[in-house]
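ARCHIVE CARD
SHELF: 3
SLOT: left
DATA:
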Amino acid sequence: MGMDLLEIYMEVADHFGIEEETLVQQDAVTVQNLVNNILTTLAAQQSQPPAEPPSRSEVQATLLTIITRHPESEILPGTRLIDLCD
């Protein structure tokens, strides 16, 4: 059906420069939870200012790109991450 959950976390962490363990520990259930966790983690890392943190829509678009095996219309903020996995 899709990627395994660990693969999603690994790619997201790599893309946004976040520690994978940080995302795993936050235990997101839905896509929206993961988006919120990414934004929260990036905001907490502001002591090392990036050019400009990504917007919510940029984070969501990136997640859709990472989870490539699902048509975009199937992935909604309330979609459970486990449902996107093999």
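SLOT: right
DATA:
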Amino acid sequence: MLKKRSVVLSGHATSVALEPEFWAVLDAFADERGQSHAGFLAWVDETRGRRPLASACRILALEFAAGKHRLTTS
């Protein structure tokens, strides 16, 4: 079952639907970065390139869980 979160990105309201397990990992990553959920999703949006937002979130969660993503604040 997917869990949706709504956020405003670049002035546009959008929602992202992910499995709760992915949200748990992304929440931990956001906490380590000292960011709110909205701020974290804005960062993902800014750094995702052409990849769909939900896909970028899943890949980032997998990389973070595997220890392959470096924690950066910018």
